[in-house]
């Protein structure tokens, strides 16, 4: 091979390598672009708090209000607020001590007092932070609900919680606001505008106890576990199961009962357990 042929051959090899490198970079750029699109889709998806999810399950789609006969949702929503604070690392239970006091006998402490970015959460966190001596978790459910005989504790009540959560959902484009005329009074209602969000929420709850069932609460996503327990406590879980076939409904309810029959004290002692979350469960699973 003469020198000219060698140079031509070398140029061809270099050109092939450049082309191959460009193709790889194009593939990487395309892959990065796909990832970016997925992230964008995730970021655009409506993110709801536990309180908003429970309220959404309880709201009648067209009428835009919760059942007048539901007297459980008020305290259930306060439980959601405390679990949300626990999952966001804002509150914790005091140490169990040598004698291992039960979850509901231990006081709630502020772990991190930085704002949670939600008015209701920040209001509850402020109350817990300012209270001396600290109170138990059961006490906080009662205080935040306004269910206390102690007039000094009435200032801790979170007022108009359902209305404030509904307004959050209006801002997120899930609900709208209307005035409805009942016989003796006018009432502000919040009918559903975005059925996609509620459909996804209902499917998420159904899948958690059917197609994606994990027979171990510590391997379940904490949010979905909390949603199931607190939706049941708020008497709105049935709404998510109403569209199911009879067989699926039986399976779903059987698995919910398994979760409700857990030994919460034992579960709270396992590795990486969120004790404050389990304490809220203990207050509702009596």
Automatic annotation (TrEMBL):
GO terms for molecular function: phosphatidylinositol-4-phosphate binding. GO terms for cellular component: cytosol; Golgi cisterna; Golgi membrane; trans-Golgi network. Residues 20-44 are annotated as: Disordered. It is a peripheral membrane protein. The keyword Membrane applies. It holds the Pfam family GPP34. One of its GO terms (biological process) is Golgi vesicle budding. Transmembrane segments: none annotated. The keyword DNA repair does not apply. InterPro entries: GPP34-like, GPP34-like_sf. Its main location: Golgi. It comes from the Eukaryota. It is found in: Golgi apparatus membrane. Keywords: Golgi apparatus, Lipid-binding, Membrane. Belongs to the GOLPH3/VPS74 family. This is Golgi phosphoprotein 3. It comes from Oedothorax gibbosus.
């Amino acid at each position: 091979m003469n020198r000219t042929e060698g140079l031509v051959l070398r140029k061809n090899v270099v050109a092939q390598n450049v082309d191959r490198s460009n193709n790889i970079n194009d593939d990487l750029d395309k892959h990065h672009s796909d990832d970016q699109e997925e992230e964008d889709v995730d970021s655009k998806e409506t993110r709801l708090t536990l309180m908003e999810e429970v309220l959404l399950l309880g709201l009648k789609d067209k009428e835009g209000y919760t059942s007048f006969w539901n007297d459980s949702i008020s305290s259930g929503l306060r439980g959601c607020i405390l679990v949300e604070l626990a999952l966001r690392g804002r509150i914790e239970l005091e140490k169990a001590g040598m004698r291992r006091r039960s979850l509901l006998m231990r006081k709630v402490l502020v772990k991190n007092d930085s704002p949670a970015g939600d008015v209701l959460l920040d209001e509850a966190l402020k109350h817990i932070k300012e209270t001396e001596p600290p109170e138990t978790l059961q006490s906080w459910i009662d205080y935040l609900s306004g269910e206390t005989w102690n007039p000094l504790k009435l200032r801790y009540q979170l007022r108009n919680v359902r209305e404030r959560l509904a307004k959050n959902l209006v801002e997120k484009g899930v609900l709208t606001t209307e005035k409805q005329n009942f016989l003796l009074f006018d009432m502000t209602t919040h009918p559903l505008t975005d059925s996609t969000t509620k459909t996804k929420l209902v499917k998420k709850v159904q899948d958690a106890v059917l197609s994606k069932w994990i027979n171990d609460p510590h391997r379940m996503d904490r949010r979905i576990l909390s949603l199931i327990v607190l939706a049941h406590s708020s008497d709105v879980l049935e709404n998510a199961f109403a569209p199911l076939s009879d067989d699926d409904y039986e399976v779903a309810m059987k698995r919910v009962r398994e979760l409700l029959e857990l030994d919460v004290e034992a579960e709270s002692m396992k590795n990486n357990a969120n004790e404050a979350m389990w304490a809220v469960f203990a207050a509702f699973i009596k």
